[in-house]
Write a structure and sequence with these properties.
Elements lengths: L21 H10 L3 H6 L5 E4 L2 E7 L5 E5 L2 H14 L27 H16 L1 H4 L5 H14 L4 H8 L4 H7 L17
Antiparallel strand pairs: 1-2, 2-3
Helix pairs in contact: 1-3, 1-6, 7-8
Length: 191
Amino acid sequence: MNRYRNPQRSAPKKINQPSASHPKTQTLLYHGLRRQGLCNLKVRDVQGRSGVLHFRVFGKRGRIRYVPVDPFALRLIDEYLEMSGHRHERDGALFRPVQNNRGGETERALNPASLYRNVICYYGRLTGLDEVVSGLCVHSTRATAATNALEHGADIAKVQEWLGHENVSTTRLYDRRCSRPEESSSFKVSY
């Protein structure tokens, strides 16, 4: 069954070429961060805790949470830091703009609006996701991460903690498993 909105449309294309945007998209998809949380990350916010690397993420209302770093995303971040040359600038932004049309300065943190415009929208158009997913935005990567974790057996209370939600009912809103027509109760009825 084709799960995409347009039945004539096939699955989105995969991108195989490396890019400075890949570590950003992978960090969003593997860690369920808000766009502001990603843009606020500093190089020093990649920290070891109990032998595992974590992101120190500043969330809403000044709350800090520690999110374990996925090995695949970490490899991309390492390559990105090597390519960009700011690995040892501990107080500097982890993710920076590739170019700055206003002042030319690229040492500052990535702007959340440009993350949406230059990364999410760009890859959405490139892969065809913008045509098959209504409401494609940075925050939808957060819901995708939550749904993916739940599909692979994560406990909803752990996902709640991972996303930094105060209430589990908020986390349930992110769970898109129940919104798939092929999993509707209509298909479970048998007489």
